[in-house]
Amino acid sequence: MNIAGYIDHTVLKPTSTIGDIEKCCREAVEYGFAAVCIPPSFVKRTAAILAPTDVKVATVVGFPFGYSATEAKVAETVLAVVDGAQEVDMVINLIALRQSDWNYLQKEVSLIREVCHNKGRLLKVIIESGILEEKEIIDCCTKLGSLGIDFMKTSTGYAEKGATVEAVKLMKKHLPVGVRIKASGGIRDFSFAKTLIDAGASRLGASASVAIVTGAPDHQLGNY
Fold first, then answer.
1. Chain segment 151-184, per-residue pLDDT in tens
2. Is 89 a catalytic residue?
3. Active-site positions, per UniProt (predicted)?
C-alpha cells in the first residue's frame, strides 16, 4: 500500500479559502490520499468536488479546544453528516478530562458516535495526547475506546505538542481491538510518518502530505 493511502490531507486554518480547499481536493485525488479534512463550512462543496472519486470527506467537531457544549457538538455533527461528511474528527472536552468527569465524556462520545454510526459515518475521537499525562491517555483508551468509536486521534495540531511515537505505542497497547489510531500534529516528512505507522497508526493527519509522499524513497513507497 502506498503511504498516501494512510493520509488525511488537511486544511484547517481559520483563514482557509475555497481556493485552498479546491487545491487540497486536487492534490488528494492526484496522490491518492485517504481523505481530506477540512473546516465544517466547506463540507458541502468538498463533498460535491470529491463525489466522483474514492477520496473521503472528513471534518472537525468541537475544534480545536473541545470545550463546546455537548449539544453544540451534536448539532455540528448532524450538520456535517447532512452536508456530506463521511468521517468526523471530534475533540473531547479536556476540561472534563482534567476533572476526571468520565460520565460526561462517555455520554458526549456516545451521543456523537450514535449520530455518526446511524448514518454509516466514522468517528475519530481527538484526545490531544501531547498535553496529557500517561495515565490520562490510558484512561482515554480504556474508557472511551470501549464505546464503539472507530479511531482515537492523538492531536488537533494546535497544542504545543503533536503526535509522538510514544503516544501511538501507548494507545496501541491500551485501545480495544478494532479501534484504530490516527496520528496528527507535526508530521512533515516521510521518515516520521513511516515511524508512526510502524508504531501502530493506521491513519495520519497532515497538511504537509504532498511533501511526505514526494519525499519518500521510491523503493519504500509501495510498503506503506
1. 999 999 999 999 999 999 999 999 999 999 999 9
2. yes
3. 89, 153, 182
Q: Which long-range contacts (CB under 8 A, 24 or more apart) does 67-72 make?
A: 67/93, 67/94, 67/95, 68/93, 70/104, 70/107, 70/108, 70/111
Q: Is residue 182 among the annotated active site residues?
A: yes
Q: Is 153 a catalytic residue?
A: yes
The amino acid present at 218, given as its one-letter code, is D
Which helix (H) or strand (E) is 115 found in, with range?
helix 102-118
Q: In this predicted structure, what is the pLDDT of residue 217?
A: 64
Q: What angle do CA 158, 161, 164 make, to 5 degrees?
A: 120
The answer to pTM > 0.90 is yes
Catalytic residue among 56, 124, 182, 194: 182
**Whole-number Å distance between alpha carbons of 102 and 142:** 11
> Facing residues of 107 across strands?
none
Catalytic hit among 56, 73, 124, 153? 153
- The pair phi, psi for residue 184, each rounded to 5°, is -150, 160
**Is it true that domain 3-223 has CATH number 2.40.400.10?**
no
Catalytic residue among 8, 56, 73, 89: 89
- Specify the amino acid at residue 223: N
